[in-house]
Amino acid sequence: MPPISELAVERYVNEHHPIDVQNTGIHWQNITASHYHHAVNDDVPAASFDEPVGGVVKRALDLIIAMSALLFLMPIILFTVALVLVTMGRPIFFSQQRVGFNGQKFQCLKFRSMVKDAARVLDAHLEACPRARFEWAQNQKLRDDPRVTWLGRILRKSSLDELPQLFNILKGEMSCIGPRPVLPKELERYGRYRSAYKSVRPGLTGLWQVSGRSNTSYEERVKLDRIYIRRWSLAFDIRILLRTVPVLFKFDETA
């Protein structure tokens, strides 16, 4: 796929996620001068922020949504726990180090969707399949991943595997809406936009998830993350949140 310009991504956002900035009440420039300076001047590698983009307002929304979702979805969460335990055994959860606000590392939670010896299976598959090796190098994921079990595919297609991240949100490590949480080694792929990424909490959903998800390139993800950070508003978060529900039923755009 040829590289796309940021103008093209902006045009896509304007067409699919239009925002009346004048009527939102809260806009990126109104958060903090420090945030705005570092997001626009993304080549400041050692930027440090006093609080994440959105501040107290965004954090309050996160707590309300996460606690409500946990109460409403607890039967589904417990049923999923039982399914994983019966079909795959322990461990039930999978945790992996990701990069959060200000570059702090945290353990991002998911329901386990892979075989226990996933690292060995991946290494063997990449060594035997040049096409998969190229796909992994480009996107850090595989469409036909031999590590994923049959139940894991269902969990990923329905995004149920990400429900444990509601606990990451309650702990303040993630937000309901934000950039995709990345591995420490992936942050290098953000180049001079690393500081912009570190100015927010990563999200359970976000602009990338409602803009094609698995059908977008890594370069597009980075640009969508940057656009989200630069255009943040409470109204933008609510729009993304409302668009997330129908996207979950478009299985070709998930997993």
Sequence-ordered SSE layout with sheet pairings:
Layout: H1 6-16, H2 21-24, H3 33-40, H4 55-88, E1 93-99, E2 105-111, H5 118-128, H6 130-139, H7 150-158, H8 165-170, E3 175-177, H9 194-197, E4 203-205, H10 218-230, H11 234-248
Helix pairs in contact: 1-10, 5-6
Plain-language structure description:
This protein is mainly alpha-helical. It has one domain (6-113, 148-247). The chain contains eleven helices and four strands, in the order ααααββααααβαβαα. The chain has helices at residues 6-16, 21-24, 33-40, 55-88, 118-128, 130-139, 150-158, 165-170, 194-197, 218-230, 234-248, and strands at 93-99, 105-111, 175-177, 203-205. It has a two-stranded antiparallel sheet with strand order 1-2. A two-stranded parallel sheet has the order 3-4. Helix 1 (6-16) crosses helix 10 (218-230) and helix 5 crosses helix 6. The longest helix is centred in the N-terminal third of the chain and has 34 residues, at 55-88. The protein is globular. The relative contact order is 0.18. The model is unreliable at 1-7 and 16-46 (pLDDT under 50).
Would you summarize the structure shown here?
This protein is mainly α and 255 residues long. The chain has helices at residues 6-16, 21-24, 33-40, 55-88, 118-128, 130-139, 150-158, 165-170, 194-197, 218-230, 234-248, and strands spanning 93-99, 105-111, 175-177, 203-205.
Low-confidence stretches: 1-7, 16-46
User: What is the chain-wise order of helices and strands?
Assistant: HHHHEEHHHHEHEHH
The helix tally amounts to 11
**Chain oligomer state:** single chain
Task: Give the CA-based shape.
Answer: globular
- Assign a percent range to the helix content: 40-55%
Radius of gyration: 18 Å
Total tally of structural domains: 1
Spatial arrangement of strands, main beta sheet: 1-2
Distance between the ends: 20 Å
By helix and strand content, what is the structural category? Answer: mainly alpha
